Amino acid sequence: xxxxxxxxxxxxxxxxxxxxxxxxxxxxxxxxxxxxxxxxxxxxxxxxxxxxxxxxxxxxxxxxxxxxxxxxxxxxxxxxxxxxxxxxxxxxxxxxxxxxxxxxxxxxxxxxxxxxxxxxxxxxxxxxxxxxxxxxxxxxxxxxxxxxxxxxxxxxxxxxxxxxxxxxxxxxxxxxxxxxxxxxxxxxxxxxxxxxxxxxxxxxxxxxxxxxxxxxxxxxxxxxxxxxxxxxxxxxxxxxxxxxxxxxxxxxxxxxxxxxxxxxxxxxxxxxxxxxxxxxxxxxxxxxxxxxxxxxxxxxxxxxxxxxxxxxxxxxxxxxxxxxxxxxxxxxxxxxxxxxxxxxxxxxxxxxxxxxxxxxxxxxxxxxxxxxxxxxxxxxxxxxxxxxxxxxxxxxxxxxxxxxxxxxxxxxxxxxxxxxxxxxx
Length: 425
Hints:
By secondary structure, the protein is α+β, with helices and mostly antiparallel strands. About 50% of the residues lie in helices and about 15% in strands. The strands form 4 sheets. It has a 7-stranded mixed beta sheet with strand order 11-12-5-6-7-10-13. Strands 1-2 form a two-stranded antiparallel sheet. It has a two-stranded antiparallel ribbon with strand order 3-4.
């Protein structure tokens, strides 16, 4: 979707991507005027008043709708990369801080504190406002992380990330994720026995681990591919290189340890540390609802997490704690329904009816068919079905099975048409 939007813009402006990047870097204001003059119905870009580029009071694109959000962030990052050059290899700490403040526009401490206090999730923001302990911990986290980032080795690691991504955008999501994780742990039944200074320290350690796992994972995105364990190793290596405590490194190393019976990564066959359970749930949820990927609603994100909880990928208590914080009691029914959904399917091979959706081009088509639940998140078809759409017919034959890549809306099942159909041998 991102590259479709860029291609569309290049086509309308009659330029290639190289020229688009040059214009974005050299004169973004003119580029914005060109885009606006086209009055593109498919690109209603919104100019933000709070983001200034190159210190010349030029408002820059930061948000839009649908694919425009992704396009705007892509253009913004290109412009920032044009200015973001690596500092000299050896600088005193105060010079490094000055350099970062110049590039980011404020100190890390100030930036992190601001992001921790702005989660974009109303109930979490209320929690921050009402809970002085969490508020105090969030402030300390900002100061502590700022101190760690002041070392030359941490700058080296962060520059690897900031080379390709806008630092403010990265820190914004990572800091918000860290605070949500601390709130989840603070509300988790498994942490009820932890009190006093020990609880305080656990929350601080979790916040640091989550924030820098999130930053590190930008360099090595989660492949979500069975058998591919490179992600957590490289992310942990980056955090270790940046000089962070061993507890942060180990939290990242625990991210994926083993696979469930259908090949999906799970934490461990043994009881994993509570910090790892909370970390995986929180980071997955925040990425589901962020614009770093195609954003889901909060309801949809909970449905997805709840589904995978049945497959032992996510911790049910952590999801429930997250639900109480982020959506409150008003929508707890959604979570309960999601947890019960897979259990409603007979697991003894008895046929059942299920609405199956597939996204044919420009339209979602639904057909009710007879399936058998064969375990985990797999179902097998008991009859041939056809999905008729504007671009033709998609035929799915009896005996084929779905290893569901699950996204849901309104408690219906959508099966994404991206090589999920496999012949059962």
